[in-house]
Specification:
- By secondary structure, this protein is α+β, with helices and mostly antiparallel strands.
- It has 3 domains: 67 residues, Nucleic acid-binding proteins (OB fold (Dihydrolipoamide Acetyltransferase, E2P)), CATH 2.40.50; 209 residues, 3-Layer(aba) Sandwich (Rossmann fold); 90 residues, no CATH class.
- It contains 8 helices and 21 strands.
- Strands 1, 2, 3, 4, 5, 6 and 7 form a 7-stranded mixed β-sheet that branches. A 7-stranded mixed β-sheet has the order 17-16-15-18-19-21-20, with helices on both faces.
- Strand 15, helix 5 and strand 16 form a beta-alpha-beta unit.
- The termini are far apart.
Amino acid sequence: MPKIKNTILEPVSPTTVNSLIPGGQGIATLTDGQKAFFWNALPGEQVMEYKITKQKSHYIQAIATKIAQPSSHRIEPKDSCYLSTSPWQIMDYDYELTTKRELLIEQFNQAKLKFSPDSVQPVATDHRDFHYRNKMEYSLFWDHETAQIKLSFHQRGSHHKIPIESSHLEHSTIFSAAQEIIAELNAKHEEARKYQSLLLRADQNGQVSGGLFENHQPHPTFDNLTDTILGHAYSYSPNGFFQINLPVYEMALRAIQPHIQTDNVLDLYAGVGTIGLSVARDKNLALVESNPAAYQELAKNCQGTTAQAILSSSEEALEYIQPNQTVILDPPRAGCDQKLIDKLLEIQPTSIIYLSCNPATQARDLALLTQTYRIASIQPFNFFPRTPHLENLVVLTK
């Protein structure tokens, strides 16, 4: 196949999508034997036209632009920009939840984990599949026809920006504030090329903080926001780390609470402390965070408690791991460092609570930890509706 990107192609014959993969695309096999990973395509559908976004010798990534025999699960997306932000807007919500559970089981099976598929609980949700994000970062697009700035997102598979008129993932107060800021820029006859992006965040009461990032300028400091989680107040920066979907996050914390059964608790990759301080502030609690800005917020959130805030990477704080202890893990997408896994297997704390935003690396880590531990429970959560992303909670006991 010639190397052609961003051009509409017609296959020699209709290409049937076999299944969805954890990355979110539908997988199919072209007539020449190449694998094709299609956005905007569901299992059983036939792709009649597609636009290649990435091409390798043995596979392509593409966007399906014409579908025959649409799936019974296909629905009309709310946003024209859905491929940029939330490509699973094309399916009904029940099918999304079922598919995410099936893909989680598939990833755990691929890692050869010992578990019963029946032990994987249905994906927990508050059934709010739009307007759930408390943070959004927009690009700025210069419309040459109107000589005005417009909100935009990057087009999937390219560096091009697409202007947007609506966006249903974030809190409505965020999108309204973004439109007001753009209107002010246009009133001042500003140009889009001056700005890197627009970042806004809202607390649960609808108060918005954040602002514009200018090119070649230090990021500004924004007013902190405060939210209450399980009855405890937390301060955080709009451009720092904080959970995107707080109602579902609280569901995960409530699921964690019954598994805190030791007096000593260690919270690794603690961020601003929302897990440990929400479920174990009455325990002998230590929280470890490596990012200096997040650590400053963590230290503030620990004030008035007996909790100990530690500035360190988790893999360099191994001396805090103890035998009679509950260890909480909430690592980044890359998962846990091998040194940390080795130390956990050496010291063997009483239990490990592992919350992950990437089931693939979680399964990799669990394959090692289950040399000593058993999987006591598996509970996925739909933190990011209308996207392929899934948060998963696994409890390990000796």
